[in-house]
């Protein structure tokens, strides 16, 4: 009645006729048991019948170990065949060291035909199976779609048994691991095994140790590995088999080395395929650079000033010695010569780095008549094509008749823009007309032209331009 028991090891514990019904009832209603070991418990006869009947309705058990129970090839094998017909949840069935014989294998094969997505591992080690039983198994294997591991070791199968099994293995396409250790096969049987290896696209491991495979069989296996790209492990005896011709011993060692190298090559290829599949999966998923390209940068809110402690990117590049991109609608391709169409160039200094016009004016080049009191600085520029650019740095005091204090951000009724939106810091300020919006962040190249065309300050601007032309010798861009 427990709901947490998953592993039960009852090996070497006799399961008598009196206790078998209670075990069978527990397995019928159990919803948690996954692994059950019942090796050497005397299951042959009625206890196995009760166990198999209960497991037909059990959907949770995955591994069943019934080794060393002297199971016979008649009634016991028939019960196991019925179990495989109705139970599709069992993954491992270990029947090693019993007496199933070829007749018992026929019953088990009848149950294997019904397995579609259940049994993964079947161990028939040491059950006195011969070539006759391999004929039954060879006809059954093409119908099994889930079996991945088949261990037939220590059965006197012989070369004929391997030939009976070969066609069934080729038509199976699901077996990944095959055990044929100590099955009395020779070079003739190794040739049949090599034919299966050459035809198999999925086989991972093959065990043919403790057999009389000599030079001819090793040569067939080596040739098969040259066309097989899936086999990762081929277990062979380390020492060469004795032959009449002594030179064949060296040939056997060379063939063993070739087989080992073939398995290593397949292992490297398998790893490369796995890495390639992982790369393809990564390429199918969106990568960080792809995401960043699709994102649109957030625009700086209009009128917001950049943080002075971080600085602007163009100014940082100017400090590093790299000329920033000029904030003009048309960029110059040649940095050494400047076109007369660019409004950032002057007649006196052709080809001068445009960043010089963006640096603050040093204190010694400022107007000596300017006082740092309550005065403010204004800049007037003429962005005309092919004409001289005048930069007026003139400090004008606030007129006495202005009617009171000038509100913050204004001078003489005009809006003063402390910084430009293009990211370049400057100490110059532009005076906008009264009709300019309260948010000074959204201004473009039209602002300077609008300043000159403003009728309200026309006379004052003409005066300032005249004074600037006279002082142009001492002023620099």
UniProtKB/TrEMBL annotation:
Keyword Endoplasmic reticulum set for record: no
Origin: domain of life: Eukaryota
Positions of the UniProt region annotated as Disordered: 274-387
Keyword Repeat set for record: yes
PROSITE patterns recorded: LRR
Record keywords: Leucine-rich repeat, Repeat
UniProt-listed CDD domains: LRR_RI
SMART domains in UniProt: LRR_RI
InterPro entries: Leu-rich_rpt, LRR_dom_sf, PP1-Reg/Actin-Interact_Protein
Family, as annotated: Belongs to the PPP1R37 family.
Protein name: Protein phosphatase 1 regulatory subunit 37
Organism: Pitta sordida
């Amino acid at each position: 009645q427990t709901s947490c028991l998953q592993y039960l090891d009852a090996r070497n514990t006799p399961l008598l006729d009196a206790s078998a019904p209670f075990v069978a009832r527990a397995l019928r209603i159990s919803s948690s048991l996954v692994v059950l070991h019942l090796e050497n418990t005397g299951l042959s006869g009625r206890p196995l019948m009760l166990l198999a009947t209960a497991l037909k309705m059990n959907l949770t058990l995955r591994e069943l170990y019934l080794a060393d129970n002297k199971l016979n090839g008649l009634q016991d094998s028939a019960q196991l065949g019925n179990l495989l017909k109705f139970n599709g949840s069992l993954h491992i069935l270990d029947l090693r060291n019993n007496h199933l014989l070829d007749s018992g294998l026929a019953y088990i094969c009848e149950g294997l035909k019904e397995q579609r997505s259940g049994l993964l591992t079947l161990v028939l080690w040491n059950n006195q199976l011969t070539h006759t039983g391999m004929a039954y198994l060879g006809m059954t294997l093409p119908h099994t779609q889930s079996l991945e591991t088949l261990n037939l070791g220590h059965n006197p199968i012989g070369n004929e048994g391997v030939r009976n099994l070969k066609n069934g293995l080729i038509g199976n396409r699901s077996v990944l691991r095959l055990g044929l250790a100590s099955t009395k096969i020779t070079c003739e049987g190794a040739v049949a095994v090599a034919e299966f290896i050459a035809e198999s696209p999925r086989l991972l491991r093959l065990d043919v140790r403790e057999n009389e495979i000599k030079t001819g069989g090793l040569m067939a296996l080596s040739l098969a590995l040259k066309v097989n790209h899936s086999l990762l492990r081929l277990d062979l005896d380390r020492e060469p088999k004795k032959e009449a011709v002594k030179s064949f011993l060296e040939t056997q060692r060379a063939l063993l080395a070739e087989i080992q190298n073939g398995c290593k090559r397949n292992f490297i290829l398998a790893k490369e395929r796995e890495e390639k599949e992982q790369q393809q999966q990564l390429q199918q998923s969106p990568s960080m650079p792809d995401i960043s390209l699709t994102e649109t940068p957030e625009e700086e809110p209009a009128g917001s000033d950049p943080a002075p402690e971080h600085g602007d990117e163009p100014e940082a590049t100017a400090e590093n010695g790299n000329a920033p991109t000029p904030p003009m609608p048309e960029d110059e391709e040649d940095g050494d010569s400047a076109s007369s169409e660019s409004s950032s160039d002057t007649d006196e200094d052709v080809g001068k780095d445009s960043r010089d016009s963006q640096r603050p004016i040093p204190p010694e080049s400022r107007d000596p008549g300017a006082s740092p009191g309550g005065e403010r600085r204004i800049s007037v520029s003429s962005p005309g094509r092919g004409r001289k650019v005048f930069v007026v740095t003139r400090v004008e005091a606030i007129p006495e008749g202005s009617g009171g204090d000038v509100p913050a951000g204004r001078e003489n009724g005009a809006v003063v823009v402390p910084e430009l939106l293009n990211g370049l810091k400057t100490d110059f300020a532009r005076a906008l007309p009264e009709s300019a919006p309260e948010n000074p962040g959204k201004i473009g190249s039209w602002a300077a032209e609008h300043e000159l065309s403003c009728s309200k300050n026309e006379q004052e601007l003409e005066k300032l331009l005249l004074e600037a032309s006279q002082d142009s010798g001492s002023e620099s861009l």
